[in-house]
Design a protein that fits this description.
The protein is α+β, with helices and mostly antiparallel strands. Helices cover 46% and strands 22% of the residues. It has 6 helices and 6 strands. Strands 3-2-1-6-5-4 form a 6-stranded antiparallel β-sheet, sandwiched between helices. Helix 2 (18-34) runs antiparallel to helix 6 (163-188) and helix 3 packs across helix 5 (108-121). The chain starts with 5 loop residues before the first helix and ends with a helix.
């Protein structure tokens, strides 16, 4: 097994990820403004997303996420994004859905409806199906080829996030995404 000595190496590798460095202050501003835990994820193999940057809320009660955490690529709001913008085969969606652990699980048909809504509005929301009592809002980040390779995510206690706050949070996530994508284009130029 890998010992604890790997942690400094992993942290060093994540800190060298220019996207992580670029997004970190933006996540901190979002966490402070909305009182949420905000994270950036990146697609990893096999079929997982990994947390590459994060900022915790300053509220006394907050949700804990760790740098380097991994989760299935189709779970929660980020999973709806990936399904909406990347997975095209319905049988692949079904197979992926059947492997997920939810709390409580949506029906497959409801999940497909949420994926269509995600595609239409450009962001995803998970209200307590991944983790009961937790609302997750996510926006996709695309590479130059138009593939979703990352996501910006805000996680909060459902009772503190009404529809108006979710909409405002989603709008902020999309603005951050657009700002990041513009900064990355400038960097490549």
């Amino acid at each position: 097994s890998i010992g604890i000595g790997i942690l400094p190496l992993a942290r060093s590798a994540l800190q060298k990820n220019t996207f992580s460095v670029l997004v970190q202050p933006l996540l901190s501003g979002l966490a402070e403004k909305f009182g949420v835990t905000s994270i950036a994820t990146q697609v990893a193999e096999p079929s997982q997303m990994v947390v590459i940057a994060l900022s915790q809320s300053t509220l006394p009660f907050r949700l804990q996420v760790d740098l380097g955490s991994r989760f299935p690529i189709l779970i929660s709001a980020t999973g709806r994004l990936f399904a909406a913008f990347t997975v095209t085969a319905p049988d692949a969606l079904r197979r992926g859905f059947d492997t997920l652990v939810w709390d409580p699980p949506p029906s497959f048909d409801d999940w497909l409806t949420e994926i269509e809504a995600t595609r239409a509005r450009g962001y995803a929301v998970d209200r307590g199906t991944y983790i009961s009592g937790v609302t997750v809002v996510a926006a996709p980040v695309f590479n130059a080829a138009g593939q979703m390779i990352r996501s910006l995510v805000a996680i909060g206690i459902s009772e503190r996030m009404d529809d108006k706050q979710v909409a405002s949070l989603a709008k902020s996530l999309l603005k951050l995404r657009d700002k990041i994508e513009a900064m990355q284009i400038e960097t490549r130029s």
